[in-house]
Amino acid sequence: GWPRVRVFNHSWDDPASLSTVGEISAEEAFQLTDGRINHRVPVRLNRKVTEYDHIIACGPVFPHEVAGFSGGTKYLFPGIAGPEIIDFTHWLGALVTNLGTIGIVDTPVRRVIDRAAAMVRTPLTCLTLAIHGSDLHGLWLGEPDVAFREAARLSAQLNVVRLPQPVRSVLSMPSERYDDLWTAAKAMYKTEAVVADGGEVIIYAPFLKEVSFTHGRLLDQVGYHVSEYFLKQWDRYASVPGTILAHSTHVKGTGTFDAASGIERPRIEVTLATGIPEERCRRINLGYRDPATIQPEDWEGHDDRLLVKHAGEQLYRLAGR
């Protein structure tokens, strides 16, 4: 039915499939990231972008843990980018933290993404949607910045739930569409902000049996830690891709690490009640709970508990923040 349509898989790790369109210098990186990163990064993306007359990026805008909101020029970077800027943007997001990023339009990562996109000579038009569940509430077609910001403004109204006070425990139930923790981790990202200090997010997904089908080996080696754990032992972890470190810190959440004592103090606890064995949960530095011992209804009707079904679809924040 679509004889002139072709679908290509983006091979981010194949240099032959990428084209360099520019570079962000160390000085510019320092400025864009508010002093967090001061090294250069080549700007590479799928070379097919340079072989067409026009790019149309189509998709929804939601609160996002790395960029603040998804959509816009994010479809280029890191969407179809090379590994350098993928790692750069994700590690930057980790340094800013999920709490300082998600649901915010203007973020350091968004500035880097937009700067990289400005180096692409092929014209870009965005067909941007604001949706709630499966219902379309708004659609914009035009310049990426305008379309993105309008959709983000409406998405912030549609997809952010505000609570009057923090809770001690969240039972966060991701959809069965997620088949590993790497993707189901949105159950943590989008509920972290409403958990009181010393509280807990329980990711309840008995169907989930794998940490990451793509990155599981590395995550078994690195584990899940707060960002200070890596920053204060950078010689040990500098060679680990920034995307891996970012995922690790986003799932673990904020906290501190004392290098002298080796003691790590996360702000909240993250517990897996999944099909991932207890031994592996402990090995990667996450809590474990047997999902058979959990009754989701126990999290309903309590001021200090929260049950979130289809976790990851909406962002939970405290009122006034």
Q: How would you sum up this structure, described in words?
A:
This protein is of the alpha/beta class. It folds into 2 domains: 1-158, Rossmann fold (3-Layer(aba) Sandwich), CATH 3.40.50.11440; 161-321, 2-enoyl-CoA Hydratase, Chain A, domain 1. The protein is built from 11 helices and 16 strands. The strands form 6 sheets. Strands 14-13-10-9-15 form a 5-stranded parallel sheet. A 3-stranded mixed sheet has the order 3-6-7. A two-stranded antiparallel sheet has the order 1-2. A hairpin with a 2-residue loop joins strand 6 (124-132) and strand 7 (135-142). It is globular, with a radius of gyration of 20 Å.
Question: What are the key terms here?
Answer:
2-enoyl-CoA Hydratase, Chain A, domain 1, three-stranded mixed beta sheet, DUF2088 domain-containing protein, five-stranded parallel beta sheet, LarA-like_C, 2 domains, 321 residues, alpha/beta, Rossmann fold, globular
How are the secondary structure elements laid out?
Blueprint: E1 18-24, H1 26-32, E2 41-46, E3 55-60, E4 63-64, E5 68-69, H2 83-96, H3 108-117, E6 124-132, E7 135-142, H4 144-158, E8 160-163, E9 167-174, H5 181-184, H6 186-189, E10 195-205, H7 216-222, H8 227-231, H9 234-237, H10 242-252, E11 255-258, E12 263-266, E13 269-274, H11 278-283, E14 287-288, E15 305-311, E16 315-318
Parallel strand pairs: 3-6, 8-16, 9-10, 9-15, 10-13, 13-14
Antiparallel strand pairs: 1-2, 4-5, 6-7, 11-12
